[in-house]
Design brief:
The protein is of the alpha+beta class.
Length: 95
């Protein structure tokens, strides 16, 4: 179930698991058993699921994670005919 991941909500999460952002498709916050939090962008291409780590919370803010994930989603839509994905612009400049 997608949740609007506000800063206070994310900061106060104490239950390990994956939390899906309601605003950007594919953006997730993974809370590990040690309570460290990581932004993950999940997508699939050619029916194969992929994950891209966007960084840890709070080093990467919610708004930055959303911008990076949306930029990555935009780039994925530009996949060339060989199925190669070029995410250097989305991830390199914003991360």
């Amino acid at each position: 179930m997608a949740t609007n991941l506000a800063f206070k909500y994310v900061d106060n999460l104490k239950i390990p698991g994956r939390y899906t952002d309601a605003l950007v498709k594919g953006l997730h916050l993974w809370v590990k058993p040690n309570l460290k939090k990581y932004w993950i962008f999940r997508y699939s291409i050619n029916q194969k699921q992929q994950n891209i780590s966007l960084g840890s919370h709070p080093k990467v803010s919610i708004s930055s994670a959303r911008i990076i994930a949306q930029a990555a989603r935009d780039e994925i839509s530009l996949v060339n005919f060989q199925g190669r994905i070029y995410l250097s612009v989305a991830l390199g400049k914003l991360n």
